[in-house]
Design brief:
The protein is mainly α. The chain has helices at 6-19, 23-39, 44-51, 68-94, 100-124, 142-152, 158-182, 189-207, 213-231, 236-243, 254-270, 281-297, 300-324, 333-337, 340-367, 378-387, 392-402, 406-432; strands spanning 54-58, 63-67.
Amino acid sequence: MAYRAPIDRLRQPFDALMSAQTSGGILLFLAAVAAMIWANSPAAEGYHHLWEQHVTIGSEAWKLDLSLHHWINDGLMAMFFFVVGLELKREMVAGELSRPRDAMLPIAAAIGGMLVPAGIYLLYNPSGPANAGWGIPMATDIAFALGLMALLGKRVPLALKVFLTTLAVADDLGAVLVIALFYTSDISLLSLGIGTGVLAIMMIGNRFGVRSPWFYAIFGIGGLWTAFLLSGVHATIAGVLAAFTIPATPKVKEQVFVRRMRLYLHSYASRNTPDKGIRTSGQMYDLDRMNRMSEYASTPLQNLEHALHPLVTFIVLPLFALANAGVVLPDDLGGAIGTPIALGVGLGLLLGKPVGVVLASFLMVRFANARLGGGVTWRHMIGAGILAGIGFTMSLFVNELAFNDASLRTDAKLGVLCASTLAGIIGYIWLVRTPPKPEVDD
């Protein structure tokens, strides 16, 4: 039995909180509520003033001078998109997106869940400045949707959780493509060319077997991200592109790893251990070899994803919510929610998402020989479609790119917040009350 120091016992509840799938969604929700309260309190002026404070990096010869709000949205969110890119690559290499037959249904559902909400938004905003917000209701918030699905536990089939996870990943890929193609400013070909060159260096490093995270961090942040920030293509796209250059294969095969670890363990066990737990130089040598072999047996992609996921979940996303969810509620709240932008966003998420997801899934099952997962009924699919209408993080992010007018942003934020809250509540209640699929005797 391993010795547990007092600090281990103190850390236990914090480790449990960090590892719980629902914790990130809860913290994100609390940050959004805090932003709303702060923005509508007597200290509201301080809230808005805080995010407009400028932070400068560099010297007089060359520097980046951005507001704190922009550092969060263009800098920290690039880390979020980097993790999204790592998840996408992992799923494409060895996950749900690597098997065309299994991925067919959730990918089609994700496409339907993007097109129908965009269509509903355009019905309310066919022209004018508001027309640019059609991408806002297209996205699904992974943290909230999967967090609520985790709260449901065994009330929903495992196959439905896999379906929603794959749908959310495919949805993220769609959101990245929409941002890259439709929400970019004037393009600087010089900066874009430099970024492309840096990306090529990172890809060559991958091909040559470079596995050091420092190599990819230096070129990814100092070269690719900075070049994209200055190019007009949104800097968060650099995060996704950088993720796809990270090696996704182990350095040694599993059989080699097992065989060598057995040899090292045998060597370690054969040495005499001195008193008081101090290891001999021979044992330290064996431990060092085992550590190196463990590193060779893992993939840099999974190591980075594992290391960055808590940072993104518990720092980056709550900071983003705190900086972007602070909507000043108007005196006529009903009238504000009834504006074309708020209605287009709200109904796009709350109605368009489940309609798009279920309709696309039905067409795939009916005409493309796709199959629902084990224990999944169409009532379950409706519940998953409703949860997909939680568009919080990605929708707020696209909103920042879509509109320059603060009033238009406010209308869209109201639609996002109201629809995401209702989608979470309704989806949870719907799935709680959904009976399991009855077993059929052979």
